Every structure is written in structure tokens, then in C-alpha cells.
Amino acid sequence: MSTETAPAAEGTAHVVEYEPDFRNRMAELAQKHISLVVLVVVVVIASVSFDDFATADNLTNIAIQNAQLLLIAVGMTLVIISMGIDLSVGSVYALGAILAGMASSSGAIPSILLPLLVCAVFGTVQGLLIGRGRMTPFIVTLAGLLFARGAALALSSELPVSIEGDAARWIGQSEVLGLGIPVWIALAVLAAGALVLNRTGFGQSLFAIGGSEEAAVLMGLPVVRSKVLAYTITGALSGLAGALLASRLGSGLPTAGAGLELDAIAAVVIGGTLLTGGAGSMSGTLAGVLLLGVIQNMINLYGGLGSYAQQVVSGVFLLIVVVVQRILNRSQRV
Amino acid sequence: MSEATADESGRDRAEMARWIRDRGVYVALAALFLLNVVVTNNFLSVGTISLQLVEVVPILLVSLGLALVIGTEGIDLSVGSVMAIAAGVLPLYLGYGWVAALIVTLLAGAVIGLLNGVMVAVVGIQPIVATLAVLVGGRGLAQVIAGGRQVRITDEGILALARTRIGGVVPLSVLIALAVSALVAWIVKRTVFGHQLLAIGGNRKASVFSGLPVRRILIGVYAASGVLAALAGVLATARLGASDTPNVGQLIELASITAVVVGGTPLSGGQVRIVGTVAGAVLMQLLTATFIMNNLPYTWAQMIQAGIIIAAVYIQSNRT
Question: What's the rounded mean pLDDT across residues B10-20?
Fold first, then answer.
């Protein structure tokens, strides 16, 4: 940093020129890594204030409880980078859990594949309405939220559907190297998501679309296809998350995941992905998910507070982050 | 038709889309009403009809506020949580009399609306995000206020809001909703504020350049939406006879946005249709009721509602 200001010796004019550049860079850095810094701070506070926090049991617990959210947030990151939004994820998650229960009598593999496929198709339909039909993402996925919840309730007759067979339960309930299988799956998907986002044409198109859709069209990028794919992936991952939850709990609940879309969006945005599209990262999303998970865990450890305290914290956190993003964004443009 | 050029058939289609957008809600409402006359037992009775009208009041009030917000090309997802906050605040102040409690509750709605408005107009956050954060946090806050449990309401004044029937027939809450609808229609059609909010929705940049007080109007619109949602929360609480912060107003933002859009108000702003919104709200309520009254699974109604939203928005986007 001292080298940045070194030209001051040559004349004050330089300093004035370099100043906005330096501020831009700091704003960008803060934007990208603020969630990681806050996560570290919160983890330190949690370890100091709660003896039970930094235990292997508790940490693996946080991991398994947030594996599903992480899966969904990976898809949401893709969608939000392309300046879209997917409000249907919580309901699709429940649909996935129900389908997993229904397919589990035919074996463990169908109990994962059926939800994955059906929910992917659900995402594709939403993507087509948004990409090809040029309809507003939030309206399409709001309708999707309603439809998928209705479908989950109708298919299950509004009752939990139990997971049949040890193999189908094994996926959600067993551990490898100390971590639950869903956690490994979520981490693998996160890594794959990061690769797709940063190293493939599809990922680059998403950034381009989020930056400026018109420009992306003019550049000849496959705008419609990229959008459809982003919603398809999000649908598939939500279904997979639902299937893994059902496997872990031993039954699929049609009411699962109400409000989950908000947690997913909050995690992605807290992780530094801009809701205005065009910028974001999977590492940030991981930090965002962990941050929400650790805060939830602290609230549980503290005890005496209902689950609604978590909602207040999520809401306030989301507001603070978007306000800070907005202010940083402004100073970047100066 | 076979002689028509592509241009003419395109115009025909655009005209038909416009006709469906403008009148579709009334046709659908009439059709659904007739269907119920035929299918549902005892549908044409004072009891059934007035029950349906009472049920539609919260959706209608919320939809009116949303129609104003959507007219400015905004959205307010926080309405359900504002209803919950209203349900949480109301019992706390009933000790001072029901009028005072009502005023404090409506003020609480206004404060949340102001918060939304400042986020959108001054800070410059997208409406969907700002109000989403309030949607998440608001319901939690409501439960913190209420201590996370249902509180029974015994105050006669509040209960009377739901139970009084003018002339023994027309429920007071329905008259309140109608009066508010007329007021909102008047604001949109006849006041400077109404014209300015439509101008902002039509073209925000032009409004800024022509010196309209854009921030103040936007804040006012979100505040109005907050007050209307709070009033809806009070009436829903009065009807239930209890403050049910966990459940009151859940998913009402969906039903209300559908009502507004189905009623012919475009999501792109610049236009507000109040009569259409009223019809849209009644349509949504009647659709749900049709399933319940005929012992069909409510979940089907949900899926059909989803289809209606998509169809309505599709027709709108086809227009241009």
C-alpha cells in the first residue's frame, strides 16, 4: 500500500489521481471478502463465548445442517450473477424430498435420481419462461414457489413420506472421514460450481448477461441457453438437497424448506454476489452459508431464543449487506 | 382471416391480448361465479356471499397498497410480515383503548413502509431486495414482539370491527375495504400525488429531470402500502379473535401480486387499475373458496393460481 502512495513525492497531482483508484480497489476488496472477515470474527466470538462451540461434534453438526442450504446457494449464485432470482427453491426442495420418499421403495439410486431429474425439468420450464418468454424472473419463480409447494402437498396427501430401505437412508445418515456424505456432496458441487463459473464459457456468459444483457446479446453469447441452464441447475440442486434431507431424516416432509429461498438469497448476497448481477463468487457463497449457519448455531447454544430470532438476524444482516454493497458500489463509480 | 396479412393478424393478436388484459378478470370472475352457482350447494345465500366478502378483505387491502407500489414500477414483498407485526403490536396497546391501539398499529405499519421507502428511494436498493429483507426480518420481529405465541383478543372495540354488520347484513370490514378502495382510486385518478406516482412508474428518469419530488413520492407510496398492510393485519386479527403472528398473512404477497396483475395493472409501472385490482382480489379468494366449498384439495387451487399468474404476466408482456 505504501508503494501506491509513493508518487506523492513527485507531486500532489498524482495523489489526487491515484486516490479514486485506490479507493476503488479497497471497495472491491471489501465487497469480495467482507463476508470472510466477518465469518472469522464471528467464529472467534463464538469460540470465546461458548465452550461447546469449537468441539468436533458441534462443528460437524453445523456442516451437516447447512449442506442442503449450500447446495441450493450454489445454484442461486449462478442465477443471481445472471441478474435473475429464484424464489421457488424452498418449494422445489420439498418436492425433491417427497419424490425421494416415493422413489425410495425402488432403491437408493432412484431416490436420488428421480428428484434430481424432475426438479431439473421444473427449473428448465422456469428458465424457458424467463429466457425465451422474457418474463420477470421473480414473478415466474414466485408462481413456481406456489406450484411446487402445491405439487409436493398433493403428491404426499399432505403427510410425511418415509424413506424405505437402508441404502436410501445410508446416503444421508452415514459419515466418511468424520463428515456426513451430504456435506461431501455439497462441497463437491461447490467446487464444480466454482470451476463452471470461472473456467467455462457458460460461466463467463452468466457474468456477461448480468453485466449487461443487451451487450451479451450483441456479442452473440447464448443468452437464452445460459439462462435456461442456470435455472435448470438450480432446480436440480434444490431437488438433490431435498432428497438428501429426506434421506437424513428418514422421511420427506411436504412442508420442508418454507422460507429457504430467503436464506439462500441472503447467503449468496452476504457472500458478496451482487443482486444487480455481473459479479460474484462461489467462495463468497460458502462464507455466506457458513456465516448464517454459525449465527444460527450461536443462537441455539445461547438457548431461550426462538427460531424467529434467527429470522431477525438474517433480515438485518441482509439489509446491512445490501446497503454496504450499494455504498461501496457508489464509491467505485466515483 | 386467411386473407389477412401477417401485420394485421399481429395487430389482431395484440388487440386481443389487450382485451384479455383489460376485461379478462371480469370475464373470469363472472365465469367462476356462475360455476359456483351451478356446482356449489347453497352458494347463492347471504351467508355464503358475505363470508366470501369478509374473507377477501385482507387480500384486497394489501392488494390496493401493492397496486400503488407496482404503479411506480416497484414491488413490496414485506406486506405479509407487516400484517404479522400489526398482529403483534395491536394487543400491546389495547390497554389504552382500541382506538389508540389501532392508531399505534397503523403507525407501526407506516414506519416499516417508511423503512422500505427510504431503502428504495434514498439508498437506491432494488425494491425486491429491500422488501425481501423486511419480509425475512419482519415476521421474526413480530414473533419477538408477541413472545412467539398466540394472544387472544378480548377487546370489544377490535372484535366489533369483524363482527358488526351494518343493517344486520353488510359486514363492517367489507365497508371499510370498499371505502379504502374508493379512497385509493380517488388518489390515483384525481390527486397530484397519484399522477406523480404514475409518472415515476412510467419514466423515472424523466420524472427526476422534470423536477418531481421522486424520493418523497416513493417513500409515501411504500408508507401507504405499510399502513394498508397493517390495517389488513388488524382486521385479520379481529376476525380470528387472536393475534397469530406466526401465520397471519403468510404468502399474502403472492395472492396480492396476482390480484393486482390479473386486474390489469402492468408490472412495468405507469398504470394502476383499482377496479381491476378489486376484481382480481375477489377472483383469487373465490378460486380458493371454490375448492374448499367443494371439498377438493386446496393444493390444486394453489397450482391453478400459479398458472393464472404466469398467464396474466405472459399476456402483459405480449402487449409490447
Answer: 77
Give the separation between CA A272 and CA B221, rounded to whole angstroms. Answer: 30
Question: Which residues of chain B does A269 touch, with a Cβ-Cβ cutoff of 8 Å?
Answer: 129
The mean pLDDT value of chain B amounts to: 89
DSSP 8-state assignment for residue B296: -
pLDDT category at A16 given cuts 50, 70, 90 is very low
Q: Name which of A153, A262, A311 is nearest B132 (Cβ-Cβ).
A: A262
Q: Pick from A158, A276, A311: which is nearest to B137 by CB? A: A311
- Looking at CA atoms only, how far is residue B291 from chain A in angstroms? 13
Q: What are phi and psi of B165, to 5 degrees?
A: -120, 120
At residue B296, φ and ψ (nearest 5 deg) are: -95, 155
Q: How confident is the model at residue A93 (pLDDT cuts 50, 70, 90)?
A: very high
Separation between Cα atoms, residue B106 and residue A31, nearest integer Å: 37
Q: What residues of chain A lie within 8 A of the CB of B75, using their CB?
A: 138
Calpha distance B251→B301 (Å, rounded): 14
CB contact under 8 A, B123 and A326: yes
Q: What per-residue confidence (pLDDT) applies to B281? A: 95
Quote the distance between the C-alpha of residue B118 and its chain's center.
21
Pairing of strands A175-176, A179-180: antiparallel
Q: Is A334 or A20 the better-scoring residue by pLDDT? A: A20
Which of A28-42, A96-110, A223-237 has the least mean pLDDT?
A28-42
Contact B124 A136 (CB under 8 A): no
Of A144, A147, A311, the CB nearest to B140: A311
Q: Are strands B165-166 and B151-152 parallel, antiparallel or unpaired?
A: unpaired
Predicted complex ipTM:
0.80
Q: H helices within chain B, ranges in order?
A: 6-39, 46-71, 79-89, 98-118, 127-146, 156-163, 172-190, 192-202, 204-209, 214-240, 252-262, 274-293, 298-318
Quote the distance between the C-alpha of residue B178 and its chain's center: 13
Cα separation, A75 vs A222, whole angstroms: 19
pLDDT at A38 over 90: no
CA B100 to chain centre: 25
Judged by phi (left if over 0) then psi (alpha if -120 to 50, else beta), residue A306 lies in beta
pLDDT over 90 at B150, yes or no: no
User: What is this structure's pTM?
Assistant: 0.84
